[in-house]
Amino acid sequence: MNYNFISNTMIKLENISKVYRTKEIETLALDNINFDVKEGEFVSVMGPSGCGKSTLLNIIGLLDEPDKGKLNLNNLEILSYEDKKTARMRNQLVGFIFQSFHLIKELNIYDNVELPLIYRKTPASERKKRVMEALEKVGLTNRMQHYPGQLSGGQCQRAAIARAVAGDPKIILADEPTGNLDSIIGHEVVGILADLNAKGTTIVMVTHDEMIARSTHRIVRLFDGRLVG
Amino acid sequence: MLKNYFKIFLKVASQSKLFTFLSLFGISLTIMFVMIFSMTISKITSGSGPEKDLKKIVFCDRIMTKRTVNGKSTNGYSISACGRTLSETYLKKIKSADIVSMYTGAMPWEFILNGKYQKKLQNQTDAEYWDLFEYKFLQGRPYTKEEVISGANLAVITQSLKLLIFGSDENVLGKTVHYTSMDLTVTGVVEDPPKTDQNATGDLYFPYTLLKNTEAFDEYLGGFNTAFKAGNSNQFSAIHDETHAMIARLDAADTTQSIFLSGPYSQLEKIMRGYGDPEEYSKGSSLFKYLLYALAFILLPAVNLMALNFARIHERGEEIAIRKSFGAASSALRSQFLFENILMTLTGGIIGIILAYLVVGLLGSSLTISINYFNNVPLTFSFNYMVFAATLLACLIFGLLSGYLPAIRLSRMKPAVYLKGGEL
After folding, report:
1. What is the DSSP letter of B88?
2. Number of structural domains chain A divides into
C-alpha cells in the first residue's frame, strides 16, 4: 500500500541522547537517535522493556529535555525548554494517551476531557462545544458525568482519547494505549486512533503488540536506546 | 479554572479525611485564640461604660528616676507610678488638656464583713475623676473639688458593694462604710463598671487627700496615675509637649537625679509598653515586638501544616503529571496548590471565628486573661470589623506561609516519574 504524506515533517529528532544519572549509576536511555515522522503518519515504536520507548515519547512530548541533539516539532526547532514555553507548546501541539489512562479520579469525565482547553484559556462556550465533540467521537456522551472509578477500562481509555483530542492537537503520543485492555477492547481503541489518523492527526504509538503495530504505517524498533532495523 | 480547582479541593478534602481534620483543627484552634485575644484587647482599648471616651484620654502612669553623681547617671534607678506631689503640683497644672485627673487606680481592699472575709477594690481619686470617666450615678453625687481639698470623709460605692454591705436597703446615702480606721459617708452609688475597664475600676472610691502623703520623701515617685482628657485627639501632641517640657524643667532643676516620664500614652500603648523600662519603650519597636509574637504564634501551626502538605505531595504526583502533560505550566500548578491551601485555611479560619464566639459566649465570664497585676479581664464578646478583617488576613498569611514551599516543590515534580511508574 502506498501512503501519500504531505512532505511536512511533523517530528524530527537529530542526534538525540538522554542520560539518567543517580549518585551511583548513569543510564544511557537514548543514544544518538535520528528519527522523522511526517505529518499524517501513524508510527509504532517497539522494543523490549527499558529500551527507551517512553523516554523517546517524553522527549517528543516536551515532558523531558534531551542532553544532546535537536528536536523539531511542526517545523519549529525547540531551542529552549523554559517551563511556560514548553507547557504552551505541549498544550497546542500534543495530546497524550497513557497505558494506565491517567484520568484525574477526583474529576468527572467531562472535567477530565475539558482539562487541556482550560489551560489553553478557551472561552467556556467553545470549551463545551469541543468537549462534546470529543466525547461524541469516542461514544461517551452518556457517561460524561461519571467518575473514572465508575467506568470500565475500555471506557476510561476512550475518555483519555477524548481528552487527548479535545484540543485538536497535531500530534498524539500514545504510550501502550492497549496495554491494560483485553484484545477486543484494545482493537476498538486502535480503531479510534486510526480514524483520527485518517483525518490527518500524526500519531506515534508505543506498543508491545506486533499485530497492532503492523496495522500502522511504519514500525520503528528500539534496543538499548538505539534505533535498530 | 477556579471552578476546576474548587472541585479538586472538595474531592481531595473529602477523600483524605484525616489530613483534612488535622489541618482544620490546627488552623481553627489558632484562629480561635487569635480572635479571642483580639476581641478582648479590642474591648479593653475601645472603651465602654465609664471609659466610653477612652479614645480622648491619655495616661501618665510611669516615671523613672536615675541617681546622678557629678552630673553623670549611675546604675541606680527607680521606676514607679507618679508621685502624689508630681501629679498634684505639676501634672495637674497642664493647660493643653480639658480635664486632668489623678487617681490610684484599683488597689486591693480586704476586710471582714459579718464574719466573712471579703476582697474588693478601692480607688483614691480627685474630684476631676468623675468628669474624666462617665460613671452612671444610681443615687447621690460624686464628691466635689472643695470636699477633696478639705479631706472630707466621703465615699462613692458601686451597686454591688452597696448590696454586699447594706443588703436590700434602698437609700444608702449618708450611711457609713468603714475603711481601715476611717468611717466614710456614702455620697453616691454608681453602676458597676465593666470588668474590661482598666482605669475606671473599683468598688469603693474616696478622696485621695484622706490618706497622709507617705510619698513626701520623693516628690516624683509614688502610686498615682495622671490622666488627661482632650476634646479631640489633635490635642494629644500638645499635651505630650507640655508635660515633657515640664519634666525637662524639673529635671534641669534637680541635680541629684535625672527624671524620665513615660507617656502620656493611650490605653493601647500602655498595654504594649507593659512593665518594661519606660525609657527604652518606643511605640515602633513595641508594635514590632508584638507583631513578631503574633507571627510566631501563627508560624508554628503554619509550619505544622506545611509539613503535612509536604508529606502529601506524592499523593498528588499523578495528578500533577497529568496536568503538566496537558499544558499546565509550573506557575499554574503553584497557583492551584496555593488556592487550595488558602481555601483550607479560610475554612479553618471561619470555623475558628465561630468557635471563638461560642467559647466567649458560653464560657466568657469564667475565663480571664491577665492584663495587669490587679486585674484579670474576662474574655469578652465584641464584634469589631478591624479584628474580623485582621483575622481573615491572618488566615491568608497562614495559607501562603504553609502552602508556598510545598507548592514550589510540587510544581517542580518530574511528570515522567508518575506517568509510567518510573520506567526509562
Report:
1. I
2. 1
